[in-house]
Amino acid sequence: MVCPSCGEYAHRSRSRNFRESFLKYVSPLRPYRCPSCGWRGYAAPARINFAKIDRRAVFVWIAGMLLAVAVGFFGAGMAR
Ligand SMILES: [Zn+2]
């Protein structure tokens, strides 16, 4: 991908910590780094392999939603 800061070619950067690994796991975003100006940021690759990422990501989101609903439900029940 092209660096939005200087227009040079920015290459994929490795996930540095857990947060980046998690983001990588649940979204198509990947960290990029520009060797020319040092810019670092997230972008979706030009070609996203939906078949590969979607099932995992959707499962994580649905699990999160169910958990949020469950917590909301039981929280409301206890408040009553
Ligand atoms: Zn740059």
Topology:
Layout: E1 11-12, H1 18-26, E2 30-33, E3 40-43, H2 50-79
Antiparallel strand pairs: 1-2, 2-3
Structural description of this entry:
With about 80 residues, the chain is α+β, with helices and mostly antiparallel strands. The chain has 2 domains: about 1-45, no CATH class; about 50-80. Helices cover about 50% and strands about 10% of the residues. A hairpin with a 6-residue loop joins strand 2 (about 30-35) and strand 3 (about 40-45). The protein is elongated and about 55 Å long. The N and C termini lie far apart (about 55 Å). Zinc ion (ZN) binds near residues 6, 8 and 37.
Describe, in short, the structure shown.
By secondary structure, the chain is α+β, with helices and mostly antiparallel strands. The protein has 2 helices and 3 strands.
End-to-end separation: 53 Å
Mean pLDDT: 82
For the secondary structure, the number of strands is 3
Instruction: Give me the Rg, rounded.
Output: 18 Å
Judging from the principal axes of the Cα atoms, what is the shape? Answer: elongated
How much strand content do the residues show?
A: 5-15%
